[in-house]
Batch of 4 targets.
Target 1
Amino acid sequence: MANQDSSIAVLPHYKLQDVSFKYDGGQLALSGISFAVKPGERVALLGANGCGKSTLLKILGGLQFPHSGQIEAFGQPLTAKRLDNEQTAHVFRRRVGFVFQNSDAQLFSPTVADELAFGPVHMGLTAAEVEDRVQSVAALTGIEHLLSRAPFQISGGEKKRVALACTLATNPDVILMDEPTAALDPRAQSWLLDLLLKLHEAGKTFVIATHDLETVAHIADTVIVFREDHTIAEIMPASELENRMNLLVQVNLVHEHLHRHGSTLHSHPHGHGVEHTHEHEDPA
Amino acid sequence: MHIPDGVLSPSTCAIAAAVMIPVWWSAGRKVKSTLGAKQLPVLALGSAFCFTIMMFNVPAPGGTTAHPVAGTLLAILLGPWAAIIGVSTALAIQALFFGDGGVLAYGANSLTMAFILPMVGYAVYRLFAGKSSGESNRRVLAAGVGSFVGINVAASVVGILLGIQPLLFRDSTGHPLYFPFGLNITVPSMLAAHLLLAGPAEAVVTAMVVRYMQRTGYTLYGCAGDLTQQDHRNRRWESLWVGILALIALSPLGLIAQGDAFGEWNAEDIRKVIFKVTGQSYVPQGMAHLQAVGYHPLSFLQDYAQTGSSANVVGYIGAGILGVGSILAIVSLIGRRLVRPADQPANNSVAVSTSQVSCAATELPPWLSTSTDTVFSRASRGKSNPFLQRTLAEITNGTATALRADKWANQRGLMQDLNPAAKLISVLVLLVCAALSHSLPVLALIYILANVAAYASSIPLGVLNRRVLLSAPLFVGGIALPLLFSFASPGNPFVVLWHTPYIAITTQGMWAFAVLVMRVTATVALAVLLTMSTPWHKLLGAMRSLKAPSIFVSLVAMTYRYITVLLQTADDMFTARKSRTVGPVHDAEARRFVGNGIGVLFSKTMALTDEVIAAMTARGYRGESKVLNKSVWNRKDVLWVVCIFATAIALILGEHYHG
């Protein structure tokens, strides 16, 4: 609270100042990252595979902590020590929801119903409240018929719905999403975009890591473009993105050859696979 | 090495479980203190990993294949305490959901495979590894030796558990009530199979996985440089393990000696001993009878047994020499492998910066732009190795079983409508009843009861019985077949097959055979009925409502969840391997593939574990599992449990008074 910038009228949900992060092996993942996220804002993190988007999301989610620089969440410093405190952790986890890229990692409970109940139960809601949450969030995401199924009995698209539903079940203020549209068919994608719009209108804040250029304009107000050296290239309104293709070429997100044929030619699923292995093998 | 139900006496099962309870308790405490809030996901993924690689087939000498047990490997990678819990959980799921290993025999199976195997394996590994660094070849060697000794000691304990059954449990006519063959058969045959086949395969695979993990830069358990305090603690525990190892290594000899002494006791001594061990005062006649007719079980050590215990000792010293010889041979073999100059540097992590990967379409190399079908024409020649097909089939089968499990459980019917906890209690009561019973009609009645309940639950009897027959009874029936004949079961001849030497099928033999097979059939039918009529998450709920430790239930739940993910990963790996198989696969190559495959799977498991921990933390998990309990008992459930209890008591009392 102490060093608030007086020029910002509303207290930002997140404020990062010169944040850097290294993997265990010493490899750089983020370097000198500074930006702020206002309440209700939708921010897209745009960058090529391995630029540090997922790591940044984990830092915002209080799952990893920067090696240098400051990060504030809801006006309080976000540190490992503070999250060791049960009370602080409780409040923070309630306010921040995280939709992971790998639904299999996110869906760890025996059934979909258990999955939706996990967050509310750990937040200390009563049995009746939990049941109510489970039913209404299932209705919202159209997964009522899946409630008694096991996670391995549902399709990839359904898993993504369940992952989103179980994040929403705790009614977070900020929703962090890692490649939400990846591996979704076009119909499921447009369903997701509609839902995100609805949640936006309800005042939710989003930080979404993506390299899906087509959907960025639909899901974000602000775009943060990352360079491959793990720094921020530019922060700009999402509407300006289409005029800045030269920047995207510069950060290796699009290739000129591909660009000429239009952005529809991106092959996202492959991109994810590469990024995934990268992130987890490098620290070792 | 999985012991099914009905083969061990209930008291043996109870004693094994009683030994395991403090082991689980202290392992749980140990793991909690080192892993903290991460323990649930780490152990669950570790167990799922263990379960998955138990389905792998490794080519063993002589064209056979063997399953790795992975206990020693898990101990080397995650620590011995985590290995105890990991293997125990994998065994629980095998017993509960896949009918592999008995439910009542769970304690005994855990004792051998989840406690003795990883502990002995890890102790030997520590002894051989000494103070060498985590990246040294010596650790690889030590891992191979440790897993070899571990699996062999565990196998001999299985042999002992089986072999003491006929010494302790016989009916009034002297026929064994449970497993029919003595130590002089069980221990050597278990040891022979594991010294020659499963042991070498396990050793090679363990060593290769450890090697793979070293290359990827994984820090083996207890090898982190900064953990000096833990090292101290480890060293203190090490001496304890060595002690345990020594005791366990000596115990077979002790028991063999005791077993010989059994034959020399008089009836009164045996009565005392049996009373002391089992609390039952009965059947000295069996032993007396045996002595009178000169009973000697069929065995290649029969001559030794007849000439007395000194010859037996010779046999065991022989086995010991064979064992030590095999260990030395394997050590030298692996050792030669390791010093090959072709070794890559330890740090071969692919550190290609993405900016170097150009998207520009470079020219195709010429070999890629022409078709070359003739180059691989030798593919059809040479012997093909069954390991890929076998492993694929088993993995697919395992996945299918897991996926299909709810097919009948979700329809309506007698069993499905019951409260899962009531169902679990009733099945356990009948399991105990079957294990205690020595009467063919009682056992047949229990089996029929299971079939009637299945029928009332619209579970196809054909499917139920196929599953029942395909598992334990066939196996046990095969083993128990010699029981039919006069050389194993002296008595009234039913059919005389041969006059000199005299071989006949005896009525007593038929009776003993039928009782054993029927008991196993009945217990398996009960377990299969339970899993077929109950969705597994409800079974977990039932365990919870019956006050099973919540960490255990959460662990089983999460393990089961991630078995499906890892099975899929393994399936993909083997399918990919198969799709690229041109030409015959040699055993060594196959073993290398399995070894590396397990290493890759472990790396993936660890990566997934990190993600799961993050996902759980993000939703407010702080190390304690909270679950909603939604168990509702109605009148029907109570009535059902009361009926089952009454039936069980009636059966036991009826058998007691009618003989």
Note: The first strand of chain A starts at residue 14 and ends at 22.
Target 2
Amino acid sequence: MAALNLNRIRRRLKGRVQEVFVQRERRIFIRVAEEDLRETVKTLIRLDGFNHLATITGVDIGPAIELIYHIIYKDAVVSLKVQVPKESPVLPTITDLIPGAVFYEREIQDLLGVKFEGNSSSSLFILPDGWPDGVHPLRKEWTLGRISKKVRRLW
Amino acid sequence: MVKAIDIPFGPQHPALEEPINFTFEVEEERVVDVKIRLGYIHRGIEKLAENRTYHQNVYLVERICGICSFAHTTCYTQAVEELLGVDIPERAKYIRTIFCEMERIQNHYLWLGFTAKAMGFETLFMYTWRDREAMLEVLEMISGKRVNYGMNTIGGVRRDITGKMVERMEERLNYLEERANYYKKVCTKERSILKRTVGVGMLEPSDALNLCAVGPTLRASGIPQDVRADEPYAAYGEIPFRVVTYDGCDVASRILVRIDEIIESVKMIRRALDGMPQGPIRVKVPKNVPKGEAVSLVEAPRGEDLHYLRSDGSDRPARLKVRAPTLANLPSLRKMLKGVNIADIPIVIAGIDPCLACMERVILVDTKSKKGQAWSGEELWRYANEWYRES
Amino acid sequence: MVILMAMEDELLESLKKKPVTLRFPYERARPEDRMQAKVTWEIEKCIGCNLCVKVCPSNAIKLIGRGRKAEIRYHVGRCLFCGECVDVCPTKAIQTTKEFELAFTKPEEMILEFRR
């Protein structure tokens, strides 16, 4: 089942993908460039068996932040990877394509500092009020000790 | 034209079991818009998990939620086992399946009581919670604990089900099935329940799909999506079962979906107990996990639960992402709340079975800084003064 | 068919029954055989191997000293009662008890020490 899906994805995405691999049955990972994100998502949600977007994972990988869009199909889970540079982490929103992504994007904005054009809000969603600017707790440079030093004066 | 006003709802509110803040924009009695603010019970579990070993994290992940603790540990251990490349024994798979279903039964009984309370039907609340004890006793008998069972471990399960326990389980299962049938009768006939739930909190199937709803909320809109059927984990591939759907799209359908799932779960546990093979229940696993990444899916009582795990080859995870079902259902909840009466807000919120502790995980808990978090009266007073001066 | 009180017979029947709850301090439920609560050490058996410290998910155990002279400091307030230390102990020096009513008046009392 997965193989069929993979060929279809390859054909539909044409030259956009940087890397596609099947980790095991039902698990497909795709890597695309930042600017191709919206087009790829648009193509992926039109494929047969599309169900929903499970979540967006953000991982700090040193110089960049990797966002992984987990898209659930009837017969596979496609994880779409995109990297944004840490200095200017801005991505276009996908909430107009998948309205259910709104809270996942807000969560990432708070915790990893990635801005989503079209879905950014200056108010905090998950972090407490009065949280210092620029402290994004899931980034690796913010260790537990550093965060608590910065935040101790808040409470 | 009536001017819309904002009504804050929560974080502390009698209709909410856990803290969350809604701001309702209200015109007369109708809700027009909803704003949601989270973060009141954020405990920093994702960050904390990066600082602990894989084995210690089993217990941390278990404490994401008190009610669906087994679903979270199953999801996490599955991801670690996938990275390690170990195959757990057949008997362990069956025990995991049985526990997942028992947890579903106790969760749905709890939810039924909670919903009954949200609509002011306290009698039903008391009765369902009494019956839930029957399931909790079985869970305690097998695992030694009532909620956070400590059953799952990387490479299998920690405790076995003996023949004597099976007898006691079957007796309790008969009782629970009989009660579930009775509650189904009550919920389809009782006038006060029907008046409060039929046609309330509508979620059309197309909206449910667009807003990425999961679990019983989605199945009550008539879409048969269930991780157990789509991607059989543990022993679900060997146990036949029916995916329960109703197409009422309202709170009444959500009640019926869950009651039917209780009945279905009882049948599944019986089948699993019959087909359970003999053998070992756990295998030994190495401490360090090879480099790689894994996505693991589990159908928790509230819906699809996703764990993403990335390893860098050490004994601690590089990243653990947990997406609990309630966060996936929040956009649909916002949709459902638009257009309802103020008086129906609690029942609609209860309808998705919100578990906020599950949903919010990140930020920090540092034992050293805890001291600074407690406020003395003077500090509070100073803070309040400063706050008012600024605004 | 819609009826006014669907739980009528159930409620009438309940009038004849006693409450299902226990009057706790006077009546107690019998603990299950597999129940795990506070753990204790038989310190003579301890060889100071440090395994329980490493396996503990909540860092509740501390080893003071080394080898056969080691002493144990056990933080009851942090303990999750998971029983991993009991399973891992090579000399069976750790046992679990059924003592679960663990309220203390002072924080110091939550730290138990097992000396030789």
Note: Helices of chain A lie at 2-13, 37-44, 102-112, 144-151.
Target 3
Amino acid sequence: MSILTLFIIIPVLTIIGILFSKNHMQVKWVSVIGMSLQLISALALIFLYLAERRAGNMAEILFVQDNLWYESLNIHFYIGVDGVSVAMIGLTALVVFAGIFASWDIVDLPREFFTSLILLASGVFGFFISLDLFTMFLFYELAVIPMYLLIGIWGSGPRHYSAMKLTLMLMGGSAFILLGLLGIYFNSAPSGGPLTFDLIKISKEHIPIAAQNFLFPFLFVGFGVLGAMFPFHTWSPDGHASAPTAVSMLHAGVLMKLGGYGCYRVAVFLLPEGAHYWGWLFLILATIGVIYGAFGAIWQKDLKYINAYSSVSHCALVLFAILMFNQTAINGAIMQMISHGIMTALFFALIGMIYGRTHTRYINEMGGLMKVMPFLAVAYVIAGLASLGLPGFSGFVAEMTIFVGSFQHPDTFHRVCTIIAASSIVVTAVYVLRVVGVLLLGKIKNEAFETLPDAKWHDRMSVVALIAGITIIGSAPLWLSDMINGGLGPIVQKLLAAAPAIMP
Amino acid sequence: MLIMRHELLLVAIAVILLIVEIFLPNERKRLIIIPSLLLMAGVTIIGFLPGTTGELFGGMYRNTQLTILLKNILNIGVLIIFVQSVDWLKKDENKEKISEFYILMLSTLIGMNYMISSGDFLMFYLGLELATIPIAALAAWERYKEKSAEAGVKLIFTSALSSGILLYGLSMIYGTTGTLYFTDVAPLINGAPLQVLAFIFFFAGMAFKISLVPFHLWTADVYEGAPVNVTSFLSVISKAAAVFIFTIILYTVFAKIAVLWSQVLYVITILTITLGNLFALRQQNLKRFLAFSSIAQAGFILLGIIGQSQIGMTTVIYFALVYIFSNLAAFGVVGIIANRTGKENIDDYDGLYRTNPNLSLVMMLALFSLAGIPPLAGFFGKFFLFAAAAKQGYYILVLIALINTIVSLYYYLLVIKAMLLNNSDRPIAHFKSDGFTRLGLLMCVFGIVVVGFISAIYEMVLNLSFGLF
């Protein structure tokens, strides 16, 4: 039994614990205990992984467990991790841990809320550890569907509309993914032998180019919907704005990363020729997304919408970097996923806490919060600075790597795209600083706000955990970067091998 | 005689119930409920014991491991319906008709069993008729209610029409081949124009029974007018049985013109799924809603049939099994609520979760399973159907079907939205459902949650589907 099984077992046990707990407080504490265990096992996994690598274990995938499930279709329960998935698991555990503390004030149906939240988390964990396309897809849908209930029941604003829109768009994406996966499955053994869903085995095969070109758009768009790829991002601002705090955190912090990870791990990894064939089109879309999201954020006055659009921009940058097809850029993409995941979770946590006190999210109605709630305000400034890429925080490391990697691309088209995308950093600075100025500094606009309390202990737990993540990665990024690099070898090789076949 | 075990046992309990009925005084008719359930449960269990296979009446009746499996699936479904309908049968106005309900249901089931086991078009036709006529009587259960009477009449007229069409087709088959035995007909099918015409008539007749578009028009009215438990029987058991024999005949008798019928199925599949979904979007009455959703689900089954070969047969059976559990759970909830409160509209379910959380959860699981959300059984069923069609290279068809699953997810979510998200000033008050309803729903939930994880079920169906060819 591999240590990875824990990431499925702990959530299941937690859910059972929640179902048997008697009251409100018990539900919360069971969730806290479960998700703390999850965080501890994630940290343990990181240490174990690094130790294995240091000991010289250079296997492509570590901690493998492989159980046959559907024999005739060759479906396995096959789990294992490389550097990239370890990093994603660490991110998920951290954000879920913070999310539980951020939803301490849920009063309506707490049992159902925490059950759905942890169900969602288990879907995400399962997705990151799966190496079998079937189980991967199963966990993917498992992660998406609780969102409907979470936003619909505990959300605010036009929650019914947002929940339905989000669910239908994401499930529409998953319909595309399913078609792509079936296509890969039936082309998974071009040289004979049994068909397989095994990701690693398929990556060693060479899927016929015609099939790759047909399937790639389905998979990339399917995962891209969840990765908020322009023009399929429209569910994201509405969904984030209507969702309760913890759900926004999980959603922007983790769930959207499923999209980027899927594009990287399934679409580009398994269909490298298809990726080269279609890359230009999606690169244009990603570049538009980067710029569009940044400008969208400038326009907004609602704190959640600002961060939702900023997420669109940052997530588009992930897809942008993946489509550059070189090691540095893809490394940057993974770093960006981690960095943005923690940072945006911090943003949404803070917004939720501020909203819980002021009962408004419009920046024009607030001001001078720095005097009233210094802890939250300082944390917000930290998140903002990380978001605009100040050195010392994770955002800088990620974006720097992405743009250095992208600019290595020799041809003009990619360089122009890089320059356009890089200009988004300036726009990001504008909206971040504007919010900080209006929201936190200046005069207190509403007298009622003068007596508002600062963060409580559970708020602090959540915020401190996330800030720790940002600063650790920002000040000591090398171990993370090396860990990710260790996992990138196979995909880069495949992309290089595919390039001459397509490029003139 | 052991070869006909399933049918004979069912005949036996039908006769026993008929005799007991005579000796029961009017005020004690309810006593018959428990023995009927026990007998049916017994028959279901006996059905799973290893049985003998073989042929009777010179090959008119064939029993193979596959048909035994199919009959067992139907038995389970009928048993669940029996358990679910106890609460409704106990009502005062139904008191005198309790044994009628059981006997009519059982005789339909006997008809279905003969139909599945048929090795000859004549036996097939006899079974089909026996499976249809008693159910029409059941549809007209509340004969003084206009809608129920209408349902009965509509059902009998449409089945008469479809049987006529079907028989016409069969007569053409006889005319061109000179025999009615499946094994003798199969090699003589050569795609001659008259045979194609015969196939079209046969197909149309079956399409009525499975309610495929454009032969679906009777479905919604009949489903709405009939009592809920009869509706669930019609939409689940009848449909499954018809699909089973339809698939068997397509794969064995018409195997030689597979190119032709897969083209026909291709078009009908798209029409059925799409129109069923589009109509379901507009429904307010839950019975009509489930009627149209079941039309769409039938379209998904065709996806498996089009997959041909052993895989196709397997996915069809597997999906039917999953569909039985999911749909019966949904109908079970609709039934108990209609029974206790008389409410059948989606609006009425507003805020149901706050008053009746358990029923809402069952309904949610059922609808998610019908929509194909993992890790519920419906997901596995749908996935295998899509895989079967994709295996034959029908990627466009799979894409259309996949897009349709999103449409279906939308309307299933509408019901879930009503139950969990909406608040209502006058929600359905809390009520305690009786033990039988709970047992029935529990069986369904067990099926929905567990079947997907046990790969052995799929493998077993797959192995038995070998026997077909």
Note: Chain B has 20 helices and two strands.
Target 4
Amino acid sequence: MRMTDSARPSDGFDVAYVARLARLHLEENERAQLQGQLEQILSYVDALKEADVSGLAPMIQAVETENVLRSDEVSPGVDREAALANAPEHRLGLFIVPRILE
Amino acid sequence: MSWQADIGLEIHVQLRTRTKMFCGCPNAFGAEPNTHVCPTCLGYPGTLPVANADAIRLTVRSGMLLDSTIGLRSKFDRKNYFYPDVSKNYQITQYDEPLCIGGHLDIVVDGQTRRIGITRIHLEEDVAKNIHFGSDSGVDFNRAGTPLMEIVTEPDLHTPEEALAFLQALKQVLQYGEVSDCNLEQGNIRCDINCSVRQVGAERLGTKTELKNMNTFRGVFRALQHEIPRQIRELERGRSIVQETRRWDEASGRTEAMRGKEDAHDYRYFPEPDLPPVQLTEEEVARWRAELPELPVARRARLVQAHGLPEYDAGVLVADKEVADFFEAALQAGAPAKAASNWIMTELLARVSETGASIHSLRITPAALASLLQLVEKKVINGPTAKEVLALVLAEGGEPEAIVKQRGLAQVSDTGALEAFAAQAISANPKSVADYQAGKPAAFEFLVGQVMRLSRGKANPQLVRELLKKQLG
């Protein structure tokens, strides 16, 4: 596991980069439009940066619970037929996806 | 110019739990594809993960075995990426608050002990298995969501030999800890290698490459044997090392840069909102520590002390937990300790290394070995016959005692019968008798052999020697 986001661009918001991470294909005009819109949204959220949060622990969850665990016991799953029923394609009991390049 | 390699490992270990990490589907290898699945591990929207308490206990136990600091508070995070092995488009892992921090493991290479640092141990979910066909790929979710522990080492390893020794030592500890079966054929241990080289004396580490998805120890060794000289060659030619992910190709014996998938990774980690943090108490951790199973060093000492085994024997037996378990089970069934140790170390381990299977998969059970050794001890059969019986048990299974009866293999200790064989051997071999009387000990051994042959191998050899000596005057 890589612990740093080494591939993150150093400044600004790069819509093409984020689209690539999300496997989205954007046309040139869409890219320009989204670049502007998303920058606007980000600058809106930037207002939060003005709040003084020094000395506060980050809030990860709205409800403060901990240790919601299960014991190591088998519970019923779903039949393979049911699991595969919604797949666009299946064969030999496997979900079939476009060929993955190794 | 003199170079040094710096190697760090990221080792993924499948934990020995009954169920998956975040749902109650069985954690089992080898089932028909997609038969251990439910909406949670298939990644259906709206499902909620619930962490397996036992997987947390086993990870903490691993940390204890490796002298880590146990993080009493830890949490889970999402690692986001798009690939068909993870249907949610994120893998649940631990990013900045792992269960175990720091630690170390000692390795011995060429008689030198070195302490290798552990950076961290965290818990995550394994991903689905992809099967590649010519024109498309298949996905099997049986493995998806099974508990996977990741152990990250410091770049403290310097040679392929050290990397191999580390993996073997780690496997031993995890097997003794009953954390994982560590079955390599089933992919229980897989690892990524980070490797760089620098000039001896240089302070900073060189640029590293990553070798991903190594699933055999031999592969790790061979990949490093190739990758280290490759990097040195590049640097000596005045080129630089590109930080990249490479793949080890077992068939060609080379590493090569991977295409596509691995570039520009940006996982956008963030805390998993569906899983509350884990808060362990000091008492809980202390209780787990008290439950730690006996480790190799302690077991070795106990075998020496309790059963009077030589240090060497004890060392060989405990090297593999399954072998030591087999030995102790044979003792429970009444086998004499030193004989059991001898037979396991020679006959059984030879068979294990020939077949590459575990000792428990041999057709002889600890109880059958005990019964065989008791037959030898009570002089019902002699040593060579015992080996013959062992070969039969290994080939066909069965009870040594029944085999001896059925095949009439019991040793002949009937003095009358043996005296007749001795007389026959003496009269048929006058030259050997003369040689013996002229002081040639080899001639006596020949006569012993003749008597054994006449008894079809069943004579009590001790008795044969006595009777021959008596008859030869």
Note: Chain B has three domains: 3-285, 296-407, 415-472.
